[in-house]
Structure formats: structure tokens, C-alpha cells
Write a structure and sequence with these properties.
The protein is mainly α. A hairpin with a 6-residue loop joins strand 1 and strand 2. It starts with a helix and ends in a 7-residue tail after the last helix.
């Protein structure tokens, strides 16, 4: 397990290196140049489907972060039209405990990066544990962990932090539920994994 921790950590450090010491949010803001107010004909987004990230997800995350730092929970989002309940859409993940803690303790951009890269690292450990449980030897299990960390859906939608979070809880759920079937002491861990899936955001993925 020590080697799995080291490998996952090194992969994340290498992957996150371009953002060390920077205050920009990891999000696809190049899509903003395709909107009416900021339109630039010479700008071609690398992934047009990520337009949700800068115009929908990021503003809500920033608003939630500001509310938490003011000592309150923001249940109403005044940024969209005449206002909407902030948790009614199923994707905000407002009640995900690590998100609440990070947004309360750190500036928005730091909390965002800690959530993204922290969950990415932990997803490797969860995938490694599941692979070992399924009978793989150490080195194949490490390969499995690496492939899972950088799987296509997670990397394509990495700007949306719920994907990195989901990437952790899916293998953790499978690993803990299999343990819980034969040993009731693992029921709590299985319940934790299911809670993580249901509260991380975008419940349709769960």
C-alpha cells in the first residue's frame, strides 16, 4: 500500500505541476470567448462542451464559498435569472462535507485545486485497493490505479470537480461493499462511500 500511496502522489504532483503557485482556477475559460459579450472570432475552445464550467459551475462555487466564509449556508442562488434554490439541480454537491470544509477554510481557487487533485490522488488508492481485492498482484494493481486516475471521462470533464470526486467514490464503494458482504464491520465504510457518491454532485452519475 505504501508504494500505491507514493505512485498516486507522484502522478498527481506531476499532473498538477503547471498550476503550482498560481491563483487561477482550473476551468475552461476559453469558452467565454464564444459568448455574446466576450465573443472573439479568433478563439477556438479546445472543448466546446465545457461551456458549463465557467458560466454555471464556477459562479455557483464562488457564491457558495463566499457565503461559507460569511458564516452562513447559501440555500438560494440569486445569480441565475430571478433566483433558484442552490441545491435543487442535483449537480452543485453543496452538502458534500469535504467541499464545505475546503471552501470554508481556503480561498476559492485553493479549495478548488485541493479538491480536484486531492480526490484524484485518493481515487488511485481506491482503485488499487479494489484491484488487489480482485486478486491482482501489486504491479498490475498499480497499473490499474494509474489507468483509473487518468481515465477518459475524468480527464475530459476534470474542470468539473464532481468528476474527480466521483472517480474516488466509485471504486471505494465497490471495494467496501464487497468487504461488507462478508464482514459487517465494513458496513460503515460502504455507507460512507454511498454517501460520497450521492452528495458529491451530479446525482445521475451516482
Amino acid at each position: 500500500m505504501k508504494r500505491a500511496v507514493l505512485v498516486s502522489l507522484l502522478w498527481v504532483l506531476a499532473f498538477s505541476f503547471p498550476w503550482w503557485g498560481r491563483t487561477e482556477n482550473f476551468t475552461a475559460c476559453d469558452n467565454l470567448y464564444q459568448t455574446t459579450t466576450l465573443y472573439r472570432a479568433d478563439s477556438v475552445p479546445y472543448n466546446e462542451d465545457l461551456i458549463d464550467s465557467p458560466i454555471e459551475y464556477l459562479p455557483v462555487e464562488m457564491y457558495m464559498s463566499q457565503a461559507l466564509k460569511q458564516g452562513r449556508m447559501a440555500f438560494w442562488n440569486p445569480l441565475f435569472f430571478a433566483g433558484v434554490p442552490i441545491f435543487s439541480d442535483g449537480w452543485s454537491g453543496y452538502f458534500y462535507p469535504p467541499r464545505i470544509l475546503l471552501m470554508w477554510l481556503f480561498p476559492m481557487e485553493i479549495a478548488w485545486h485541493l479538491s480536484l487533485f486531492g480526490h484524484l490522488c485518493l481515487s488511485g488508492l481506491a482503485a488499487y485497493g479494489l484491484a488487489r481485492q480482485r486478486g491482482l498482484n501489486r504491479d498490475p494493481a498499480l497499473l490499474c490505479a494509474t489507468l483509473w486516475m487518468f481515465n477518459g471521462p475524468c480527464m475530459t470533464w476534470f474542470e468539473l470537480d464532481f468528476m474527480a470526486i466521483f472517480n474516488l467514490w466509485l471504486p471505494f464503494c465497490l471495494w467496501s461493499v464487497r468487504h461488507a458482504i462478508s464482514d459487517r464491520r465494513w458496513v460503515g465504510a460502504a455507507a460512507l462511500g454511498i454517501m460520497g457518491l450521492l452528495t458529491c454532485g451530479h446525482v445521475q452519475w451516482a
